[in-house]
Amino acid sequence: MSHRNLFVASYLIWLKIKLAKIITPVEMNYPSEANNFLADHVALLNHSYQELLGDRLMADNYANMALAKALFYAPFVLVSHNTDADPVFNYANLKALELFGFSWEEFTQLPSRLSAEPSLQSERDKAMAEVSRKGYLANYQSVRIAKSGARFLLRDAVIWNVFDSKGNYAGQAAWFADWRFLQ
Length: 183
Prior knowledge:
Blueprint: H1 3-21, H2 39-53, H3 64-72, E1 77-81, E2 89-92, H4 94-100, H5 104-107, H6 121-134, E3 136-145, E4 151-163, E5 169-176, E6 178-181
Antiparallel strand pairs: 1-2, 1-5, 3-4, 4-5, 4-6
């Protein structure tokens, strides 16, 4: 086994142990017609994006539930995490779930820092800190790791702060449509 494969195998074992210890309750159910595709949460993501970047996540002018459904099935990745001291993902669209290889239940219990390999977490932390200070970060590029151990380079990502309807900080979100798997 190569050094790289050994590292990835070790990381996956570590990740599975960490996931097994997580007891954070799932905050939201899998997006569906029954819960309006989490339209209230998605509206916060979209509104915050629009306020900070002056653009919308989707060009079409959808009503809340239609927007939430369109974003859930969109061909790009959309994720968000909460405000915990060690933020946990609280939303992922279908493309994100497919790319990262997690079920909704697994992903919404995963600390967002674990989407990056341990060797890249300090770089990720710096980017998150910059988003906290400036409100958003555009043209972000980094490597992430899927549940399977597959590594992928994401390019031209946007990360932004999310605010609730009262203007209170509610976490951070990320969008990207450009990625490629690495060897």
